[in-house]
Amino acid sequence: MKKFMVALTGLVTLATVGATVPATAVTTAHAATKSTYVSPSLKVNAIYTTSTKVAGTATKGSKITVKATKNAKTNLASGTASKTTGKYSIKLSKKLKKNANVYVYATNSKTKAYFYRIIRVQAASTKAATTKSTSTKKTTTKKTTTEKSTTSSKTSAASFSVKTPTGTWTSNTANKYSQKWVFSQKTGLNEYLYKNGKKVKTLVSYAKYSVSAKTPTFWKITYTPKGSKTKQTMYLRFTSAKKFKVVNSKNQVISTKAGVAPAAKWTFTKA
């Protein structure tokens, strides 16, 4: 399980709930840092069995390393993101096997804060699967019958990836109450409670937190509100890149309290 610490602004206290609902995804976002510094950003392009390099973008000047496992002593590749564009392209020391996982890290060389992603290696061919079905047409006369087989249809699996929770998320309205969560790499996570559209309480401010993506769409968030020494945990299930539900540790939707608001099932949408 991969973790990263980021300073966040306000987070509501939610019941303990328990990445990728088992969803099929190529990239598992994991983040971790052992300090209170803001961790670097990191984007990794798809990696294939034929790839000779790992490329993408990261915080400018970040050190980029690729490992076969989290604690690997040797690197599969290493380099530095451009100080002007943040782009990087580093050469792999060997070819990678299909469905193998590789760990790509972006590290701030000064603060040592880091962020990483687990990337699943894909087969060289990425074309959508094509299936053919047959329909039969018949024309009949008194003497002959002819048959013609036609039609083909294409199917492709829909997918999405979630990189970071950064941004503003607003909830559904339940019992006249609603919430707004704001994730920021600079100010942290702030959570606010509203009733009939008017702000009634700040639930959490400037909370430091770590994210562990159990699957690409199922995240565990451990956080510590400002001024508190007690860590709290919540779980999120992303149903799209811009929507998540509050769930438990078993990835089941649950009802949770938010300040003075009655317990309710919460769904958040990115503004």
Automatic annotation (TrEMBL):
Keywords assigned by UniProt, alphabetized: Signal
Protein name according to UniProt: Bacterial Ig domain-containing protein
Domain of life: Bacteria
Species of origin: Levilactobacillus brevis (strain ATCC 367 / BCRC 12310 / CIP 105137 / JCM 1170 / LMG 11437 / NCIMB 947 / NCTC 947) (Lactobacillus brevis)
One Pfam match: Big_6
Domain Bacterial Ig stretches: 43-110
Signal peptide stretch: 1-25
